[in-house]
């Protein structure tokens, strides 16, 4: 009787290959034929047979038949390095195209970890002398591969997979394996890598996205039949039809305010632009804050989706990308309300949120154990996510993010507040976006009140957007920055102005640059004088748990007189309407964003946005503790001779600001090259947010008392996969009650917290919803 080769404890490798093939057929049926070309299907067909060839060793077979009982060497049971070796050998022997070989080899090697990339230090200039995606031809890796090759049952593996392994693989056991590995390395460097490096940057980006598409589809197909109990239902897409008419039903008859008139006018113009630019791929929407960009974008997305559905029968997936968690909830609510206007209740198939606070629920009609896979694969018609999650799906080589990449293809993508993207992502994203819409047949809408210059060659949904800015007279920027103002002087000024604000029922927003300065201002205003005035003081910063922040924003939105003290976490996209804004100095884009919270509805005449230049007790500017010096200097140069700038002149000022940055800042050329040439780069999160300082995170367990017991239950799961998923289900709850403090030599978390299952549980008295986290040196809550 012929020996069979197992892929999983209950599954022969041949059966697994058939399941992957069937899953791929289902997945590519959701996409357009322009994306899943015959060439892509051919690559996926080969990859299905190649990706698990390394499972043919006796060590892996011993392991897979009884994983908990396996006592052999851990590295000997690994299968992806051997799958890479087999793929390269078969490609060399068969004379396969070099770039196809790279896709297949990299996907085979990385389907249980990450798409392989090459350390930059191994490369020299534009050449590729040491370009090697796994460095397999020497040292311990070569010794391990030589040993694993001696463990392979070649005839059984050939029968199980249908891959002809006789030439050259079966001879390997009798050959000088090290010489053969060197031969494969030369093939990889001298032919495969050389072909990659001969491509232009634009063609190399196109190729990288093609590779990610193939890789992404394999990743999902490899798990599909193992993760769901009813594969037929999973593979059949029952598209939910979002409809543009729901927006009219949702809006109804808006009031006749100046801002609503502007919104209605913009809607009409956007509808005309959609009809005129049916073949467009990258669009822009530049409009003043408060002009209803969320609904304008929804109009665009729903119209395009309806068109593709009628023409192809495959409605586009809609992906809404936002820069901050603070505006995820309000955007999700808008789309949920649109669903209700259409007569539907939201579930994961209609609408899915993907971010650190999401609860990972999908739908009650789906078995609980299957929901995580539907969430992780973005199996929804409309996804609302963060920049972090979107850019990791687009650029990060990690398999857990790349599994979603194919969802970015044939999609309608809305990116809001694009001015918040750092300069070093400008060049990479310009090229990657252009490739995404051509190679992967997506459409992208880039939105902001102030578009950065990397957004070139876009089709504007509001071609005459300048007139919208010139018609807005809601606020005036007043620069009180000729002289520095100490934090103590600022607090004294605010206390003196408090009675007038209370008497006039003002809604005032005070935005500071650091947590410490914000706390200082909050405490100054929340004293006896505030109590006597009867005006509530709300505090929003990273010292306040996300759960409390969301509750505070709800109170602010109620529209009653209040004073809000915040850090910049409130400045972009949070839909609040204030009478007066005071802000510590910052780069111009931040100043414009915070101004968008002032007189948002335009019902109060022209309201002031005052900009001050605050310093601490040592005379150090708070702005320089937080922001890039070039951003600050470009802003200072622009306002040097300005004392007041009305809203209608802000657009011109913003354009000058971004042009100044473009000429002085690193716009990410090296990161573009690294992406195109498959080189290692900084983590996407670091490219987006900068290098994070080490900090300690504390859980305010009083806000979720049941969590501690649920954490213990998750930790007690014996199966590691069930344990991992149990912790992932708790991640949103943990994030909602978390606050952090930067590490410093004089502070240790044990001073205020206890270690519990790897998390710091904050002791009672060190947090209050009104003041946030109270660390060493501050008064405890009694």
TrEMBL record:
Entry-linked Gene3D superfamilies: 1.10.3210.30, P-loop containing nucleotide triphosphate hydrolases
Gene Ontology terms describing biological process: defense response to virus; interstrand cross-link repair; nucleotide-excision repair
InterPro entries from the UniProt entry: Cas3-like_dom, CRISPR-assoc_Cas3_HD, CRISPR-assoc_Cas3_HD_sf, Helicase/UvrB_N, Helicase_ATP-bd, Helicase_C-like, Helicase_Cas3_CRISPR-ass_core, P-loop_NTPase
Domain named Helicase ATP-binding: residues: 274-469
Start and end residues of each HD Cas3-type domain: 6-224
Domain Helicase C-terminal as annotated: residue spans: 486-651
Annotated GO MF terms: 3'-5' DNA helicase activity; ATP binding; endonuclease activity; hydrolase activity; metal ion binding; nucleic acid binding
Keyword tags: Antiviral defense, ATP-binding, Endonuclease, Helicase, Hydrolase, Metal-binding, Nuclease, Nucleotide-binding
Origin: domain of life: Bacteria
Keyword ATP-binding: yes
A matching Pfam family: Cas3-like_C_2
Family affiliation: In the central section; belongs to the CRISPR-associated helicase Cas3 family. In the N-terminal section; belongs to the CRISPR-associated nuclease Cas3-HD family.
Protein name, entry field: CRISPR-associated helicase/endonuclease Cas3
């Amino acid at each position: 009787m012929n020996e069979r080769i197992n892929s999983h404890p209950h599954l022969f490798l041949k059966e697994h290959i058939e399941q992957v093939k069937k899953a791929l057929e289902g997945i590519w049926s959701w996409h357009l034929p322009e994306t899943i070309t015959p060439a892509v299907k051919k690559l996926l067909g080969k990859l299905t047979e190649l990706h698990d060839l390394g499972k043919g060793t006796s060590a892996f077979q011993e392991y897979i038949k009884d994983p908990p009982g396996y006592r052999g060497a851990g590295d000997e049971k690994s299968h992806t390095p051997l799958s890479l070796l087999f793929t390269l050998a078969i490609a060399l022997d068969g004379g396969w195209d070099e770039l196809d070989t790279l896709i297949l080899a990299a996907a085979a090697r990385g389907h249980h970890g990450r798409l392989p990339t090459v350390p930059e230090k191994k490369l020299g200039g534009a050449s590729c002398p040491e370009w090697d995606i796994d460095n397999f031809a020497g040292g311990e890796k070569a010794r391990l591969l030589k040993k694993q090759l001696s463990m392979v049952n070649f005839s059984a593996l050939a029968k199980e997979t249908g891959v002809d392994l006789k030439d050259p693989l079966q001879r390997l056991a009798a050959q000088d394996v090290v010489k053969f590995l060197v031969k494969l390395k030369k093939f990889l460097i001298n032919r495969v890598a050389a072909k990659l490096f001969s491509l232009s940057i634009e063609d190399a980006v196109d190729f990288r996205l093609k590779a990610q598409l193939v890789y992404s589809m394999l990743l999902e197909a490899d798990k599909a039949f193992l993760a769901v109990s009813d594969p037929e239902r999973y593979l059949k897409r029952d598209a939910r039809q979002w409809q543009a008419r729901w927006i009219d039903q949702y809006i109804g008859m808006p009031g006749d305010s100046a801002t609503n008139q502007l919104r209605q006018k913009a809607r009409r113009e956007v509808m005309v632009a959609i009809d005129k630019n049916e073949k467009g791929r990258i669009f822009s929407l530049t409009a003043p804050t408060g002009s209803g960009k969320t609904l304008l974008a929804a109009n665009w997305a729903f119209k395009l989706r309806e068109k593709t559905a009628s023409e192809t029968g495959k409605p586009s997936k809609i992906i809404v990308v936002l820069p901050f968690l603070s505006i995820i909830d309000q955007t999700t609510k808008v789309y949920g309300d649109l669903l209700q206007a259409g007569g539907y209740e939201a579930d994961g198939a209609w609408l899915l949120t993907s971010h650190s606070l999401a609860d990972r629920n999908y739908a009650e009609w789906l078995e609980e154990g299957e929901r995580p896979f539907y969430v992780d694969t973005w199996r929804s018609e409309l996804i609302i996510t963060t920049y972090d999650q979107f850019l990791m799906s687009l650029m990060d080589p990690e398999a857990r993010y790349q599994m979603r990449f194919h969802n970015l293809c044939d999609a309608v993508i809305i990116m809001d507040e694009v001015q918040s993207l750092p300069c070093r992502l400008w060049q990479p994203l310009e090229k990657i976006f252009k490739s995404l819409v051509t190679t992967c047949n997506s459409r992208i809408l880039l939105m902001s009140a102030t578009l950065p210059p990397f957004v070139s060659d876009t089709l504007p949904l509001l071609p005459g957007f300048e007139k919208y800015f010139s018609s807005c007279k809601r606020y005036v920027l007043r620069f009180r920055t000729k002289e520095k103002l100490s934090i103590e002087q600022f607090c004294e000024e605010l206390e003196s102005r408090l009675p007038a604000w209370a008497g006039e029922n003002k809604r005032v927003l005070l935005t500071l640059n650091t947590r410490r300065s914000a706390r200082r201002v909050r405490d100054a205003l929340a004293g006896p004088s505030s109590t006597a005035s009867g005006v509530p003081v709300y505090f929003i910063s990273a010292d306040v748990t996300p759960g409390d922040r969301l509750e505070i924003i709800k109170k602010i939105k109620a529209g009653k007189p209040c004073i809000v003290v915040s850090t910049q976490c409130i400045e972009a996209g949070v839909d609040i309407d204030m009478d007066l804004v005071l802000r510590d100095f910052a780069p111009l884009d931040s100043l414009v964003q915070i101004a968008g919270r002032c007189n948002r509805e335009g019902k109060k005449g022209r309201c002031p946005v005052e900009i001050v230049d605050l310093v601490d007790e040592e005379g150090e500017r708070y702005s320089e503790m937080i922001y890039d010096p070039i951003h600050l200097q470009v802003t200072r140069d622009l306002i040097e001779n300005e004392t007041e700038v009305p809203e209608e002149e802000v657009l011109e000022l913003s354009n000058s600001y971004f042009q100044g940055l473009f000429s002085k800042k690193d716009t990410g050329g090296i990161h573009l090259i690294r992406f195109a040439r498959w080189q290692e780069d900084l983590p996407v999160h670091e490219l987006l947010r900068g290098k994070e300082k080490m900090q300690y995170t504390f859980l305010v367990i009083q806000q979720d008392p049941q969590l501690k017991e649920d954490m213990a239950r998750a930790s007690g799961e014996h199966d590691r996969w069930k344990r991992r998923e149990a912790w992932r289900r708790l991640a949103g709850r943990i994030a909602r009650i978390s606050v952090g403090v930067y590490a410093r030599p004089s502070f240790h978390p044990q001073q205020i917290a206890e270690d519990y299952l790897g998390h710091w549980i904050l002791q009672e008295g060190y947090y209050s919803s009104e003041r946030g986290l109270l660390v060493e040196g501050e008064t405890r809550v009694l």
